[in-house]
C-alpha cells in the first residue's frame, strides 16, 4: 500500500502539467519519494528481522540500514513540517507576501534542508558510533544472544543522541506544525465569516423579511459546516501524525533515563506504527487534493478524456477551494444587479486571491 500510494503520487506529478505549477506539490512529491524509500529500503529488512528473529547481513550493513531508517523517516517528518509552513504562508499572509516568501529558490532550499538535516543525525553519528558512547556494554548484550547464538541489529542510543535526535526529528517539527495549523484554522474561520457577511450584505436589499431570515439561517448552517469540516480535516492530519510517531519518540527519550528497560516488543510496535505513517501520507496530502485525484483518475483510467477537466471551475459555479486542509466556500456566482461597496469588493477580492494560490489542496 505504501509503495503503490506514493508511486502514484510521483507519477501524477510527472504526467500532469497543472500539478507542477503549484509549489506545494513539490513538497508533496518529495514527501512521496521519502515514504517510498521507507517502504522499499527500510521496511523489508525490518520485516525479515522481525519474522526470523535474527540479523544475517553483518554489522556494517546493520549500521547502513539504521542510518537509512533515521534519514528517511526524519526526512518524511520534515517534509510534513514544510508543507504546514507553506500552507501557513499561503493562507495567513497576503498573496504578494506568499509569492515573496515561497520563491523557487526558497522552495529548493527547504527541500534540500529536508534531506540534508537528517544526514547530520543519521549517517554522520551512526557510522561514527557517536550514539554508542557510554553504553557499549548494553549494546553488546543485546546484539548477541548467547542462548541461541543469534545476532540482532539493535539501535540503542545514549542520552545526548536520544535528546538531540528526537528534538530535530519530531519535537521541533511538531511544535511548528501545531502553530502553523492553529493559525491556518483561525484565519480560515475569519475568511468564512467575512465571505458570509459580504453575501448577506449583498442580498439583503432584495429579499423579503422571511427570505432574509431563511438566508441568514442558511448562511449560519453553511458556516457551521465549513468550520466543522475544517476542524475535522486538521484534526485528522495532526492526529495521524501524533498517533503514529509520538509513542516512538516519547519512548526514545524516556528509555535511556530508565536504564533501557523498555521491552523490545514495545519498541517494535512503536517503530512499525511510525512506518504506517508513510502509507497514510499519500491519502492525507494527495488523495484529498482535488487536482491529484483528477490526475489519479487519468492514470488509472488510461487517459480517459472525461477526467481531463474534472474539478475545473466554471464562471457560475461556487468555488469550493480546500486550502491547506481547510475548505473555504467562495461563492462567485453573484447576481448581476447586486451592488457592493468598494470596501466589500476589495475584501472579497483579497480573500479569493489568497485562496487561489492553494486551490485544490
What can be said about this structure in brief?
The chain has 361 residues and is mainly alpha-helical. It starts with a helix and ends in a 5-residue tail after the last helix.
| Count of spatially separate domains | 1
Q: State the CATH superfamily name.
A: Rhodopsin 7-helix transmembrane proteins
The CATH architecture would be Up-down Bundle
CATH fold-type name: Rhopdopsin 7-helix transmembrane proteins
Give the terminus-to-terminus CA distance: 22 Å
Helical percent range?
Answer: over 70%
Strand content: under 5%
What do these coordinates show?
- By secondary structure, the protein is mainly α.
- The chain has one domain: Rhopdopsin 7-helix transmembrane proteins.
- 72% of the residues lie in helices and 4% in strands.
- The protein is built from 13 helices and four strands.
- The protein has helices at 2-15, 17-20, 23-52, 59-92, 95-101, 104-119, 123-127, 136-143, 159-203, 209-254, 264-287, 290-300, 342-356, and strands spanning 144-145, 150-151, 319-323, 326-330.
- Strands 1-2 form a two-stranded antiparallel sheet. It has a two-stranded antiparallel sheet with strand order 3-4.
- The longest helix is centred in the middle third of the chain and has 46 residues, at 209-254.
- The protein is elongated.
Q: Characteristics of this structure?
A:
361 residues, mainly alpha, Rhopdopsin 7-helix transmembrane proteins, two-stranded antiparallel sheet, 13 helices, disordered C terminus, 5HT4_rcpt, GPCR_Rhodpsn_7TM, transducer
SSE inventory with pairings:
Layout: H1 2-15, H2 17-20, H3 23-52, H4 59-92, H5 95-101, H6 104-119, H7 123-127, H8 136-143, E1 144-145, E2 150-151, H9 159-203, H10 209-254, H11 264-287, H12 290-300, E3 319-323, E4 326-330, H13 342-356
Antiparallel strand pairs: 1-2, 3-4
Amino acid at each position: 500500500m505504501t509503495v503503490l500510494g506514493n508511486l502514484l503520487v510521483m507519477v501524477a506529478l510527472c504526467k500532469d502539467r497543472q500539478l507542477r505549477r503549484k509549489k506545494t506539490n513539490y513538497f508533496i512529491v518529495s514527501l512521496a519519494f521519502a515514504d517510498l524509500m521507507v517502504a522499499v529500503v527500510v521496511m523489508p529488512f525490518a520485516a525479515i528481522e522481525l519474522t526470523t528473529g535474527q540479523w544475517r547481513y553483518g554489522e556494517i550493513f546493520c549500521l547502513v540500514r539504521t542510518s537509512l531508517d533515521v534519514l528517511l523517516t526524519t526526512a518524511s517528518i520534515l517534509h510534513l513540517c514544510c508543507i504546514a509552513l507553506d500552507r501557513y504562508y499561503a493562507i495567513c499572509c497576503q498573496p504578494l507576501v506568499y509569492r515573496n516568501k515561497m520563491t523557487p529558490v526558497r522552495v529548493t532550499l527547504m527541500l534540500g534542508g529536508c534531506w540534508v538535516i537528517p544526514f547530520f543525525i543519521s549517517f554522520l553519528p551512526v557510522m561514527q558510533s557517536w550514539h554508542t558512547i557510554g553504553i557499549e556494554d548494553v549494546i553488546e548484550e543485546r546484539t548477541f544472544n548467547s542462548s541461541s547464538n543469534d545476532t540482532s541489529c539493535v539501535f540503542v542510543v545514549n542520552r545526548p543522541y536520544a535528546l538531540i535526535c528526537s528534538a530535530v526529528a519530531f519535537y521541533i517539527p511538531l511544535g511548528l506544525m501545531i502553530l502553523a495549523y492553529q493559525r491556518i484554522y483561525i484565519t480560515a474561520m475569519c475568511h468564512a465569516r467575512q465571505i458570509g457577511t459580504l453575501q448577506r450584505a449583498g442580498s439583503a436589499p432584495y429579499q423579503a423579511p422571511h427570505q432574509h431570515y431563511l438566508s441568514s439561517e442558511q448562511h449560519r448552517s453553511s458556516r457551521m459546516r465549513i468550520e466543522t469540516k475544517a476542524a475535522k480535516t486538521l484534526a485528522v492530519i495532526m492526529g495521524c501524525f501524533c498517533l503514529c510517531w509520538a509513542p516512538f519518540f516519547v519512548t526514545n527519550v524516556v528509555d535511556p533515563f530508565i536504564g533501557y528497560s523498555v521491552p523490545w516488543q514495545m519498541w517494535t510496535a512503536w517503530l512499525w506504527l511510525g512506518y504506517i505513517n508513510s502509507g497514510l501520507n499519500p491519502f492525507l496530502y494527495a488523495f484529498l487534493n482535488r487536482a491529484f485525484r483528477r490526475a489519479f483518475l487519468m492514470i488509472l483510467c488510461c487517459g480517459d478524456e472525461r477526467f481531463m477537466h474534472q474539478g475545473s471551475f466554471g464562471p457560475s459555479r461556487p468555488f469550493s477551494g480546500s486550502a491547506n486542509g481547510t475548505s473555504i466556500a467562495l461563492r462567485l456566482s453573484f447576481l448581476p444587479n447586486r451592488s457592493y461597496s468598494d470596501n466589500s469588493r476589495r475584501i472579497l477580492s483579497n480573500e479569493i486571491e489568497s485562496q487561489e494560490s492553494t486551490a485544490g489542496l
